[in-house]
Amino acid sequence: MRRKLIVLIVLLLITSMVSSQTLLFSTLEEKIVVISGDYKEGTLTLINNADKDFQIVTFRRYYVLDSKNNEISGITLEIYKPDGEPLSTGVLYTYWKSGEERTLRYKIYVNESVKPGTYTLFMVLWGFLSSGDLRVIQIPVTLEITDVPLMFKEAFVEVKERSVKTNRILTGETIVIYSTVHNLKNSPVSINGTAYLEKNGKRYLKTDIAMNLTPGDNSLQVEIPIPYDLQAGEYRLIYKLEYSKGTYLFSKVFYITFGVDLTAISLEKTEVMEDEKNTLYLTLFSERDIVVNYTIEVYGVNNELLHNSTKAIKIEKGSTIIQDEIPSLSPGSKKIMSKISFGKITLDQGSISYNVLAYPQIENILYKEISLNENKATVQFSITLSNANSKEVVTKLSYRFFRPNETIHKGSRDLSLSPGENYVNITLELPIGEKIYYEFSLIQNNKEQKISGDLEIKPPAPPTSTFSQSSTPLTSTTNTTIPTPAPQQRNILTYIAILLIIIFLVLLILYLKPAPSKKRRERPKPKRRSPIGKFKRPKEPEIKEYRELPKK
Which domain holds residue 479? Predict the structure, then answer.
């Protein structure tokens, strides 16, 4: 009886196999990557792609095909039940509905003899319907066999202090490189690496890396602090990881700067007077909150340092305007150098120029009497004005002549003074025989230079022009008319003329003096000579020749 039952079951199985259909199921996973000579364990998600529900699903076998559909050996598959128990053959799932996903735990061993490449693993399952019908289920899984144990994922860079991804790094900040490396092996893999900045072929801030990577994902983090004194400019970050099977290289370009720039430099005035101060304005743009120093240097002719000051100021992110005062300086062109620094590090600098103008000055006042009558005299005043600047200046000359409690003359002139000495002539009538007071004022930029004095015109005995110098010559500058010649020059010419007249009179007197009477010249008596003295040769006779005959 027992033998008959066994025969019946075998017949039923054979009958069901003959009438069974082959179904193809899929997995959510695209592939399984395994290192040659190692193993890989994990889970697969199987999907019931059939439109049928299975009461029982059993695992029957597996096989591996290469790219040419040839079955190969050297790859071993182990599967486990949902409770973790190993399963060679037998019931894998029960009540697997259509479209339902089931999890399959696996472990795949790959022999070292298996060459790297792509293979297909086929798992063969039997599925029994509620009617007792059998369906053969095949599940293909792509296997990628490799001898490279590490998989490098994309790296990225952040600024540690700001936790942002940016291509602009500030000195004093820290570059942090994040990367993930997946170790496919089930044992640690040692790697070495380096990270540094490169500019014009030169390396900066090199950092060495050495570590063992455990199986699975490994997160790597490398920090490169940027010093404050690193020169601003464009740098390339080089991040390299090396091991026995290969090299991973990551690079990115950054612009490194201190983040504080002098964007503008200006002055309140481009021209000031010699006793006037000026105001300097500096505009800074900062990408950080920091305390910096600003230095102001003022240079004159031949780069002579005239003023120097250094101050500290706290600036915040954004624009900051610094205002500082330039003291009054001597006349001339001035150049301002402004420098922004942090410690001994120069961040930025700029320059600007301006002119310091000298006040025009009254240098000298001369006058001469042009004509006289009984009560009044016509007098011409010659005022010498000086302009110490290298350009023309506009000023105003005012004058007033007065006696006590009465103004005789007053007036003013607007003048444009050329560089150097300028001359102004003023002609007016003044009373004779009394003391007259005068005031000359030169006004420039609301500053007044005043010269005052007095004079008294007396009718001279000889009717000659006389020149007298006023009480006080002062410094200043102005020009309208230039006298021809100046009163000082006329005095010198007068003295020369008088001297020439005196010399002429002396010569005339000497010429007219009667000459003394001439005495008759007496011939000296000849000396007696001894007849025995020296012999003297007689003179040759003189023969006269005439071109014409002598007249009778």
Answer: 361-489
